Amino acid sequence: MKFISRIFPFVLLALFIITCNQKRDGEKETILEGNMTLLVDESLLPIVEEQVEVFESQYNAKITLEPKSEAEVIQILANDSARVAVLARNLTKDELNVFKSKKISPRITKFATDGIALIANKNLQDTIVSLEQVLDVLRQKPVSGIKGLVFDNPNSSTAQYMNQLAGIKSFPATGVFSFKTNEETIKYVSENEGMIGVVGVNWVYNPREAIRPFVEKIHILSVADPSGNTSFPSQNDIAEGKYPLARDLFIVNCQGFSGLGMGFASFIAGETGQRIVLKSGLVPAKTPGRKILIRQDIEKK
């Protein structure tokens, strides 16, 4: 009996450790730990890649990115195949009603404003393009000086944005071309004079190494609006509302629990995430604070 009474506390301790380990192994993701798939509008991939890289370096989390067209992202979200996404627009009323019918209340966080860049081959002498002329190509009206428009994907956010501005539902049969990615669009424009590419601005501000040689062979064009004012997709012009092709960026979380979706949304909208946005050339939703160090004494050399 004495032997049993002596080993009993150790047995309890062993059972406690085993139980804790089992709980830890079966634990669901938290706001800062675990694994998550993040759907990304392909036109926003560079800025999201930067955010994820820093987030993973600070927390015990693994976020797998799935770049898709805007239409694909919305469809996958609606089918519950994934629960968190980054979009270049807010959800529409109809889309919100779909989630409401499934008793899901998406948490939507605005984290930045970017612009759609119009790009051309570097041999082009005139670096200003009329927005109305670009839209007229989509409307199939005769336009001089523009051989055609090149998009990343007919279902992308950039394509939908431009079609809406032009007042059309889909691309015309002539004058408009599309690939599958922004990278292919940039490469094609860099090699073909007279074509204007339509891409997410962060693809040309922070290009991947593979497409840097092609980015060096293009111009980012200034855009003249109908009133004749000219602006550029710079942080300043976008922040001041001068650039006509600006759009807000959102992270949409449909998880319904305190998981990585909530943690990543808080991170991307927080101090560090907003600094990454600022450094990338986009406009942060909140201007990150500046720390000023005041020295009491001046060192004399």
Topology:
Layout: H1 2-25, E1 34-41, H2 45-58, E2 61-68, H3 70-78, E3 84-87, H4 93-101, E4 107-121, E5 128-130, H5 131-138, E6 148-151, H6 157-166, E7 176-178, H7 182-191, E8 195-200, H8 202-205, H9 212-215, E9 218-220, E10 222-224, E11 230-231, H10 235-239, E12 246-253, H11 260-268, H12 271-280, E13 283-284
Parallel strand pairs: 1-2, 1-3, 5-10, 6-7, 6-8
Antiparallel strand pairs: 3-12, 4-8, 4-9, 4-12, 4-13, 10-11
Question: Helix amount, in percent?
Answer: 25-40%
Segments where pLDDT lies below 50 for 5+ residues?
1-5, 7-26
Average predicted confidence as pLDDT? 87
CATH fold name of the largest domain, please?
D-Maltodextrin-Binding Protein, domain 2
CATH architecture designation of the largest domain:
3-Layer(aba) Sandwich
> Biggest sheet, open or closed, and with what strands and sense?
10 strands, mixed
Quickly count the helices.
12
Keywords: Signal
Protein name: Phosphate transport system substrate-binding protein
Pfam family, one: PBP_like_2
Structure overview:
- The chain folds into 2 domains: 34-113 and 247-284, Periplasmic binding protein-like II (D-Maltodextrin-Binding Protein, domain 2, 3-Layer(aba) Sandwich), CATH 3.40.190.10; 115-246, 3-Layer(aba) Sandwich (D-Maltodextrin-Binding Protein, domain 2), CATH 3.40.190.
- Helix content is 39%, strand content 23%.
- Strand 6, helix 6 and strand 7 (176-178) form a beta-alpha-beta unit.
- Mean pLDDT is 87; it is low at 1-5 and 7-26.
- The radius of gyration is 25 Å and the shape is globular.
- The protein has 12 helices and 13 strands.
- By secondary structure, it is an alpha/beta fold.
- Strands 1, 2, 3, 4, 6, 7, 8, 9, 12 and 13 form a 10-stranded mixed beta sheet that branches.
